Amino acid sequence: MTRSLSIIPIGGLPEIRPGDDLAQMIIDACQADPAGLQADDVLVVSQKVVSKAENRLVKVDPDDPLAHKPLVIEESARVLRRRGDLIISETHHGFVCANAGIDRSNVAPDIAALLPEDSDRSARRLRDAITGRLGIRVAIIVADTFGRPWRRGLTDVAIGSAGIMPILDLRGTNDAVGRELHVTEVCLVDELAGAAELVRGKATGIAVAVIRGVDPAWFAEGSVVGEVVRHPSEDLFR
Amino acid sequence: MTRSLSIIPIGGLPEIRPGDDLAQMIIDACQADPAGLQADDVLVVSQKVVSKAENRLVKVDPDDPLAHKPLVIEESARVLRRRGDLIISETHHGFVCANAGIDRSNVAPDIAALLPEDSDRSARRLRDAITGRLGIRVAIIVADTFGRPWRRGLTDVAIGSAGIMPILDLRGTNDAVGRELHVTEVCLVDELAGAAELVRGKATGIAVAVIRGVDPAWFAEGSVVGEVVRHPSEDLFR
User: Fold this and answer.
1) Do B11 and A1 touch (CB under 8 A)?
2) Predicted confidence (pLDDT) at residue A164 exceeds the cutoff of 90
3) Any CB–CB contact under 8 A between A84 and chain B?
């Protein structure tokens, strides 16, 4: 693989409301951009706009910065750690993250946004609608910003995907000196989500990025919850 | 920020040997590529070529797949978990990873490659040499492939950097609806390292990628060990 990738921020998406046809709004925003939308583009879409379109919004007391905490418990399968107001839990999807992925940025002050109920399904619906309407193969990644142990700072990771293999399995292939690569399974969707974050930013309201130039061999079915989420029994740190 | 990023794989780097002038070899490889090397490019360089140039290579029995395990203990400040042959430890730098970052891919069968002794210093030296010789501002990230808890698959992360802020601190800035962003510190260097991995691949021998289009405001001093490595006392999972 020696192709370059382009990571293109797509502006112009209007404020998303529950029930909106997000797929069409993404198509319109892409088509209004000089970059357009092409076959084999990967579209990385922020969790927040997906949650808004799917009405995963809950009213909370705008004056209470901790008003969403009871929701965190409801949205968690189990709490792993607490420190002060911070709750690290495992969500019903299996994601381990702060506050069950619930947050109050880029929404009205009296709203908390929950993660999509089934974020792989959200990605599949967007992919099916965009591919169906435009007749081109695209992949979708729904991305959210998570912390992680050991390392400071947050990165964007995939919480849902459609049309792209979440993990590229290189086991059994050879390295550049002909030695077999043993334990190399690369999490493509997380690297793509993080790459998209670099152009989306947090304060810009840019909810969509197009990644162009991805290896066509990576377009295949697969799901984040099925392939990226590690079962607790395989995890050395739970 | 509404600029696009380009992620450009740089081929043509020769096999690196201890003592090689890696900075010059990277310059030559970049200048032989149509993309060239420009001011404000971020160069992501694989740990393996840095370790080779710095002679962080140890002879091991080529017939024993576990011959590097004693080195893992030597290179670790403490072992966190063991399962079968797998050792997850904290290195002397503070990185938490498998086998103290030691691996045997893309080296001769009788060689194990250790991490650079001071990977931020490695990055600074490359940056100083390239900037000094070409008279342009560039940033360097030294990247390696690490696993992580909770999620399957590996991603590339930064183990050293120079000339770029490792973490972008957005605390105190406002989101797109004017609400203050509270806990948003984005680990730029890890997202950049992961993005570069998407074009470098594992089996291609492409050890360098250029990332072009990065926000000029991100060019600043900082180090991975100083800013990204989380102190064990702050870590909820150690």
Assistant:
1) no
2) yes
3) no
Query: Please, what is the angle between helix A22-32 and helix A119-134, to 10°?
Result: 50
Q: Name which of A159-163, A186-190, B103-107, B109-113 the model is least confident about.
A: B103-107
Retrieve residue A206's tokens.
């840019």
Please report the residues numbered 161 through 180 in chain A whose beta carbons come closer than 8 angstroms to any beta carbon of chain B. 166-167, 170, 173-177, 179
* Rounded distance between C-alpha atoms, residue A3 and residue B198, angstroms: 10
Would you say residue B182 has pLDDT above 60?
no
Query: What pLDDT digit, counting tens, does each position of B4-63 carry?
Result: 999 999 998 999 999 999 999 999 999 999 999 999 999 999 999 999 999 999 999 999
Contacts of B11 (CB under 8 A, 6+ apart): A2, B29, B33, B204, B205, B206
Please tell me the distance from the alpha carbon of residue B175 to that of residue A107, in angstroms, as a whole number.
9
SS3 (DSSP) at B208: strand
Interface test with A, best of B33, B80, B119, B150 (most A CBs within 10 A): B150
Q: What is the ipTM of this complex?
A: 0.95
Is B37 within 8 Å of B127 (Cβ atoms)?
no
pLDDT value of residue B1? 44
Q: Which fold has domain B6-54+118-230?
A: 60s Ribosomal Protein L30; Chain: A; (3.30.1330)
Domain ranges, ordered by start, for chain B: 6-54+118-230, 57-115
pLDDT digits (tens, 9 = 90+) for A138-152: 999 999 999 999 999
CATH class of B57-115: alpha beta
In total, the C-beta contacts within 8 angstroms joining chain A to chain B are 249
Do the Cβ atoms of B7 and A7 come within 8 Å?
yes
